[in-house]
What does this fold into?
Amino acid sequence: MGGKGMDHWERVNNPYDDDKVIAACSLFGMMDTSGKRFSGGDTITAIANMHERGNGLGGGFAVYGLYPQYAEHYAFHVMYLDEAARREAESLLQDGFRVALAEPVPTRKTRAIENPPLVWRYFLEVRTQNGQGLSHDDYVLEKVMQINTGVRNAFVFSSGKDMAVFKGVGYPEDIADYFRLDEYQGYLWTAHGRFPTNTRGWWGGAHPFSILDWTVNHNGEISSYGINRRYLEMFGYHCTMQTDTEVIAYAVDLLVRRHHLPIEVVADVLAAPLWSQIEREDGEKAALHTTLRQVYGSLLLNGPFTVVIAHQGEMIGLTDRIRLRPLTAATKGDLLFLSSEESAIRLVCPQLDRAWIPMGGEPIIGSLQRPLAKREPVAVEEATA
Amino acid sequence: MKTYLPPRFVIDRYAERCIACQVCVRQCSFDAHAYDGEDDEIRSYEKNCVGCHRCSVFCPTQALNIRLNPLSYRPNVNWQPEFIEDIIRQSEGGGVLLTGMGNDKPYRVYWDHLLLNASQVTNPSIDPLREPMELKTFLGRKPDRVELDPASLSLKTQLAPQVAIDVPVLFSAMSYGAINLNVQESLARAATEAGTLFNVGEGGLHQTLYKYANNAIVQVASGRFGVHPEYLDVARFIEIKIGQGAKPGIGGHLPGGKVSEDVAETRMIPAGTDALSPAPQHDIYSIEDLAQLIYALKEATNYTKPVCVKIAAVHNSAAIASGMVRAGADIIALDGLRGSTGAAPKMIRDNVGIPIELAIASVDTRLREEGIRNQASIIAAGGFRNSADVVKAIALGADAVYIGTAALIALGCTVCQQCPTGKCAWGIATTDPILSKRVNPDIGARRVVNLLRGWSLEIKEMLGGMGINALESLRGNRLHLRGVDLTDGELDVLGVRLAGR
Ligand code: SF4
Ligand code: SF4
It folds into this structure.
């Protein structure tokens, strides 16, 4: 991955809405819904077990409950290709925020990772006078966009509170080794191994893709990409990376943060129930689903996909409505697992309370607000909303 | 005056097959066949033949063939036979050259330069025979977002009126008078059965068709023919007709001869008088005036149905469309260069307007740039020939399409362009009571329903091939289109990449 490809990505300005990145993948997610933090060991073991589903061109992790000592700060993980990029981005960060800590993300020399970029982390506080009337989140978002599109050779991996994304070019287990993820703790881990078919893969292009504290891991190819993207453009989102994942992240951001829809309802937009099903529903539910499809039809994700989406306190697994990509869910006590393959779950937790394959379009939600062990009779709410 | 026009067609009558049954004589409404009793023989008057094929289709012994007259002029790139003959016709009759149907000139048909995508390996195609495939479409204004009650999570958003159609193909405006009641009834019944809508055009809604009104679009055009409260009340939605693709910028003229008692009653004008639709709507000289009419109609119908505004696709359609949406149009209908008509001046039909493909692309793009694409649905019209054209139009950004000619072809029309003569041998563009009987609404409705069923099956196949199982995922999804043999400028307007890219 030389600088050449990188020079390119920020300038991607493609009037034809194209160059869509196609990828297949392995996904894994593990959450302790009681909020107990645990090390990344099991997640790394599980995703490594699905090695064959990736091709070494991208691996990554999202961890929540990661930085309790800085829980109220925006944690930025930023990648740089050179020192100049770092200087430029840092002056931007210093102007825009009070910087509580700036340091390189600790790494360990490994043979598998060649030519890594610089990765730094910053714990930032929004200066009140800098808000310009924007909410803190919108302000942060604007800064992230500024760095990603304006600063050459810099890219923000993640920018949420008490969470971070670690990712790069390599198999996920190598990325974990490189970033010493076995040394961190969190209550929610997600992981991704990537098989891009039409790009060389670059560090920023690995999953999870993140915006604020949202992270998206994705397996699939979205045949509705062209219209999803054009719809989001109407709301000011610019899809600079041309990945399906980016589109999903923006869609979730629009629906949850800006339109205030609960995640169960968001799932009904992204993997909308079929009209034949809506016809069988009762009046109120049918009205909701009909209205959602009428208004957000352009955000329906068509084509095969599985996503594991997470944000502070919540993890969601979802497949397309006719389930063209795999997803297995499982529970054990307060733990919720989501995985492309059941074997990966069984490897780290052989004695499960329950393991099942969710229906197409049915969101599986783990939430700190509803710890599994306290929920009766079993586990997760299936087919919510 | 002796005409200098040569016959356009040759009638081949195979003597060994002809049994002199005179079917052709009765079928031809243009008097191109006549029975000579003395010789017990059928004679041809080829100068009268318009090439409509009515006689050859109905000849019981297949003794007839109609072909282009091979008579050639000395080749001349500038003086094509058509121009020579137009001048001959005008020098003999004077006046404006009239014609029917859509523009027949070789302007680029962009549909034939756009190719669809299909899934391979990374994304499975979907088999519509085994998996659900959704074509359901809602026409009408959509809000920017859905609001839920924060506490109960129940739906707070109330949508403006929406019209559901099961197949994204509607029948475009064809008025009673331009076509006869049997044709309208065929379309009305087909629309009802297929879950779509028919547009009654500017001639009012005949009493016998009120039972199909739930599938009717009623027009309010510049002549205001047949507009009264009940007409507006019963319709599924109302269309304000500003312009028409076949004759942008000009009005309509239904000659008094076609205005029978029944047509007159439906139009609410005296029988036998010319029905003249002025070129502009004389109460709409600006966008504010349009807004007033839109809201007058919404008021009149208590905000129970969408109001559509139809314009001809012209040079600055994108800006006009944006104004229409802001003026309150819930649906905009764009009628392109190849849109058809029952009668139009030939110079207008052949030289005014822009191709619908480019109009859809530029209007959709413009409305998105302004963030108002969701506020109105787009119905595209003008020369749609098959389901692939429909799929491509939707991928470019249309919500649905209007078909006129295609539906008439299902009823027999052979696009002979004689509609303004009122002599249509297929009994379509005529109100002659005898010719009109040639369209039987029972059979007509079945033929049109068959056509729509065929198209929807094909649309589902194409969607499935692209890995899409709901039409809304194709709408405006230009990534599924590629252009061939198009210039960079054309690709740019269409927002489509060159094949191979
Ligand atoms: S029926 Fe039509 S094709 Fe046959 S002779 Fe008459 S005009 Fe020509
Ligand atoms: S409607 Fe009749 S007259 Fe008009 S083109 Fe068709 S067949 Fe010819």
